[in-house]
Amino acid sequence: MSRIKSWVSRAALGVGALVVLLAVLAGVDGWKAFGQRASGERRARMERSPQWKDGRFVNPQPIINDNWGSVTSLFERGFEGTPTSPVTTAAVDPRRFDTPPATGLRVTWLGHSSNLVEIDGHRVLTDPFWGERTSPLTWLGPKRWYAPLIALDALPRVDAVVISHDHYDHLDYATLVAMKDWDTRFVVPLGVGAHLAYWGIPEERIVELDWWESTKVRDLEIVCTPARHASGRYLLDNNMTLWGGFALRGPSHRAFFSGDTGLFPAFRDIGERLGPFDVTLLEVGQYGRPWPDWHMGPEQAILAHQMLRGRVLLPVHWGLVNLAMHTWTEPIERALVAARSAQVTIAQPRPGESLEPEARPEPSRWWPDLPRQTAEQNPIVSSQME
């Protein structure tokens, strides 16, 4: 018996040592990518925000989670969360951008939430993710399904980079470091600028905004709008930076980018104050029934589009990485069904494809037909919408 106890003790010590070693390796590997907390005047400005309560940012409608449902969902039936064959993409020739959009508005979807928006002579890049994984670590975390469709240094000159919040699939360390010498404006919600400055982006190129605040790049107005989500890059910094969406308002066109958000009443306020929008770029993927307040899912994206007074919906936040328990094609399939029912015009470009919303391109199905759940089988319904 004593020999067994001795063996168990040694095994426990070994496991404990391994855990400590892995934690140390993760800390060393991810230290710079974790970013930096705000301090000084940046922190003081955050604390003056109406969204700041009791030492962190809060949502007007608190997020409600079904924690037990989150656990049990891990054991649900199998599904193809990651493509088993190459994803159909469109090659992005940099010369495409030498010719301005004929209508004055063009959007190139680069996968997930990365988009190049050309609007009234300006170029805005949203949530650029050129990294290998949505993780602070180089060796662990969700991996992208295909290589970046255009090199960062092959992009045309960008007037502004907007970043919705500091989660890893939206604020990518490797990408931002590669951009640190760009002659562009980085527009972010309150507190996120601390990460950028820590990574070498000059303070004079960083613009931090609270909800409803705006900045101008020549004659393009960029407005930070409310969102219902969260923030944080490690366990101890949850909600220590703000999250938001962005309205892009040019002389002739308006575009809206949601970032990450659950459905909430402020979409109607955004539509009334800043819309109507020629195109809305709304997240439709990476949702789960146990946490419907974090991500709105396909059907509620259609509702948000209507609340925003949008004309054409371009679904984003899908098609590049697997971050939720659904078939990888399910977001677009369900969005199309809901759009047809609501008579909403929806775009379905391949990753890397450009579209001009006013030109209304013919839809093309480029993804495989896979088993999936319907809205009736797995409804995503945000709370506190009354």
Automatic annotation (TrEMBL):
Residues 122-318 form the Metallo-beta-lactamase domain. It holds the Pfam family Lactamase_B_2. It comes from Melittangium boletus DSM 14713. One of its GO terms (cellular component) is cytoplasm. Residues 347-386 are annotated as: Disordered. Residues 374-386 have a biased composition (Polar residues). This is Membrane protein.
